Amino acid sequence: MKEHLKEALRISGIYAGVSALWIFLSDSLVTTFARDPEAITVISMYKGWGFVLLTSIMLFFLLKNRLEALAAASLENARLLSETRRQLASIQALHGIDTAIIESIAEQGVFDLTLDTIIQQLKIDAASILCRDPKEGSFELLSARGVSTATILAMANCKENSLARRALEAGKSYITGRLSEGKTCEARDRLLAEGMEVFCAIPLASKGEALGVMELFSRRPFDPSAEWNEYLAMFVGQVTIAFNNMEMVRKLERSNEGLVKAYDATIETLSFALDLKDHGTNWHSKRVTDLTMLLARSMGIADDRLSHIWRGAMLHDIGKIGIPDSILLKPGALDDEEMAAMRKHTVYAHQMLSRIDYLAQAIDIPYAHHEKWDGSGYPRGLRGEDIPLAARIFAVIDVYDALTSDRPYRPAWRSDPPWSRPSSPSSRLRRAGARLL
């Protein structure tokens, strides 16, 4: 407001000064040169018109300069507003990528979001992100937008004209060029057929280690201004962070897979040791576990539950560690007192396994595989569908194996019982599974 007031005072002062100077000079000239009253009247008339003309010219130039300044200021304000909006959009886009990375969205989603943002902000037509296999030297496509994924992958692994390999070997922040100037290969020809003319390949690295390459494609020449390069550098930084997170997660997954394999190998070894004591060398636990898995799969049990069923089946007799050998290995029938002691092995199994979080979902079989549909089983006397499904599945297999295997107190069935002769074991297991459901 003060600037406007100063400008108004300046124009008013100029106008007043010029007007006063005109009046003074024109009156002096009239007094000096005009003696005749009639001449004075004529000169006075022209003096008035001259004053109007002079002030009009003066106001024209004053207003012209002022309006030009206002127009220039308006254009600059519009430019600054446009630039601010563009920068704000870029900041919001970067914030969206940051949020996706922080919230641990699936790596595919992070890379797709990043490429969509890059295409929009850098005004290009297509982009891709490739991960380099350090052992094989080949490239894995993580994401591609605006162009065929098969074409990008073929181009990356093309020996004659791999933009990704050239970017890693160049030792520069990025390389650019025209696709038509490269060596001929089928993938490059497909890109040209899609209208792509120029490319930009940016190596992605962290702590001196090559991670992969980001490729940009456009149907028009790039305009790598300072702002364009600045945005590109920021997006490359975001992609590198996403890469590092992805590698960290993959390493954790590999480590977790290794631990799971080690745990399961320990479970398998323990079950084998138990079988050596109770069943000799025929590995009863492995045999019933394989059949249990066959039945569970035929019933459509979800994959994430199968691993728990496997562990529960392998450890179904773990509680027998607490049973005295005089009872466990007795060749004849057990008396009531011995049977009561034997039945405690399911409770012992629950007490042991419930202390291990890793095996919490595998307890159903060791704890409940001696329950019966009519409620006459042990240790809790469960009946019907109150018995966990995993325990019901295993019970069918355990009984089948008991009937067809030698035991200290009786020989195995040497031929199929009458109810099982017309069909194969797998068919019998499927029918048993249908009854359990």
Please, could you describe this protein's structure?
With 437 residues, the chain is an alpha+beta fold. The protein has three domains: 2-82, no CATH class; 107-252, Beta-Lactamase, CATH 3.30.450.40; 279-436, Hypothetical protein af1432 (Orthogonal Bundle), CATH 1.10.3210. The protein has 15 helices and five strands. Strands 2-1-5-4-3 form a five-stranded antiparallel sheet. A hairpin with a 2-residue loop joins strand 4 (198-206) and strand 5.
CATH fold call of the largest domain: Hypothetical protein af1432
* Beginning-to-end CA distance, first to last residue: 84 Å
Largest sheet: 5 strands, antiparallel
- How many structural domains does the protein architecture include? 3
| Quaternary structure classification | single chain
